[in-house]
Amino acid sequence: MINAAFRAEWFPNIKKNFLAGLTTSFALVPECIAFALVAQLNPLMGLYGAFIICAMTAVFGGRPGMISGAAGSMAVVIVALVAQHGVQYLLATVVLGGVVMVLFGVLRLGKLIRMVPYPVMLGFVNGLAIVIAMAQLEHFREKTPQGEHWLHGQALWMMCALVGLTMLIVYALPRITKAVPPALVAIVGVGLLTFGLQLPTRTLGDLAHIAGGLPALHFPTVPFNMETLKIIWPYATLMAMVGLLETLLTFNLTDDITETRGQPNRECVALGASNIVSGLFGGMGGCAMIGQTMINLSSGGRSRLSGVTAGVMILLFILFLSPLIERIPLAALVGVMFVVAQETFAWGSLRVLGKVPRQDALVIVAVTIITVLTDLAVAVACGIVIAALNFAWQHAREMRADIDDSTAGERVYLPHGTLFFASTVHFQELFQPATDPARVVLDCKHLHMADHSAIAALEALYERYEKAGKHLQVRHLSRRNHDLLARAGVDVGVA
Predict the structure, then answer these.
(1) Are the beta carbons of 322 and 210 closer than 8 angstroms?
(2) Is pLDDT of 429 > 60?
(3) Fewer CB atoms < 10 Å away: N or C end of the chain?
(4) Structural element, H or E, at residue 473
């Protein structure tokens, strides 16, 4: 059984998974270099982090087929830290952030991702698709002595033509054959074309030189004291939360695409451990990368082999293959990422915006816009808050009561719904102590009390009837509701 499970995770369709990993590695390189430059780091730090995190999460993680690496969301978090305190404090932060991730997984908190509503997931996917596409626009700019400017003239036309050719190959090749990943054919084909015809276009080597040696073990040279902890703890916590959030959301998306179920807590532990190792070997922190994951999945990558291949190929690029890799035209990689952005965007969400409840449509649009304008963590938090407030509002409006006056001199209220902070006002409005008879019964058979606000509302109702000189009797409390009142020391004349 163990051998069968091992083979299922590692060796189904070896050729397809190897080629998927190779394709993904080409897409990882420019992204990781760009993110390192955003964080004002040596590009090799991004590549080392990508190698370590991608390979380790592929081997030990809980979601075969998902690709992790040095992610942009993590880079943005640590820009200020690098500028103020330097690289060594960054490495210490990556290690500490990894420890937080490991603890998150060990405490089995990965299941909290189930609290993210589906509209938030749609907004997350749409927002990141737009971010992926917008990030490629930077490659249409060039640095000149007068500053950075948009490409123009022949350079712009050449860039657009090669991007268009790349996208055409990716879209058209699957209609002819599915033996090889179309993105791999597009990258290699456009690369050979530009090299053979000596076409004037920017290459990966223009972005950064990637030749280097093996990453070496190096403990961060920072003082191990409370002052250092005060500096790095806020960044490490934020880095861990952003990384875990993006990883678990990408995890859910991968589950849906592959129609399989992974192990989120195991993925959190593996991600944390890989960040610790990355920090100790001079690499950036990282998390799941939705763009590269989509490339891997669309290329047929489903096993751990695809992720390991992607990670190991990055190391080989650094050690031996940099002269070849640096010749890859940026236009080919940009074209592939444009296709990824198009395929990542949930176009179906646009068709259903007018069909789903308005509040869900609001969540989709809000999360999408906030993801683009700020970052993923803020967007998802806002989406969850909006969804939670809507849920509370809808449940508050469902509070109602049946009234039974069949017994002379007695009125029975039979409320239905959940009594909690948002429904207490509506609950109070259901009763009329001034006009009710002397004897009133509150039948709680269909009433669920959820929080302390419910207890306070019941106490307030009892006092209203007391002031009116009338008696309120509570009946049919559930065991849970009875225990809730008993713990609070509330006595409202329960029968």
Answers:
(1) yes
(2) yes
(3) N
(4) strand 471-475
Look at 202-216, 277-291, 301-315 and tell me which has the smallest mean pLDDT. Answer: 202-216
- CA gap 278, 267 in Å, rounded: 16
Residue found by looking up tokens 């080392």 in the block: 48
User: Taking a C-beta distance cutoff of 8 angstroms, is the pair 62, 271 a contact?
Assistant: no
Tokens of 452: 């302390």
Encoding tokens for residue 148? 């950075």
**Average pLDDT estimate for 213-230:** 90
Question: Which one, of 55, 72, 104, 472, lies nearest residue 304 by Cα?
Answer: 55
Higher-confidence residue of 99 and 238: namely: 99
Instruction: Name residue 203's beta-bridge partners.
Output: 329
Contacts of 435-438 spanning 24+ positions with Cβ under 8 A: 436/411, 436/465, 436/468, 436/470, 437/409, 437/410, 437/411, 437/470, 438/409, 438/469, 438/470, 438/471
pTM of the model: 0.80
CB of 271 within 8 A of CB of 129? no
Mean pLDDT confidence for 307-330: 91
Cα dihedral sign for 323, 325, 328, 331? negative
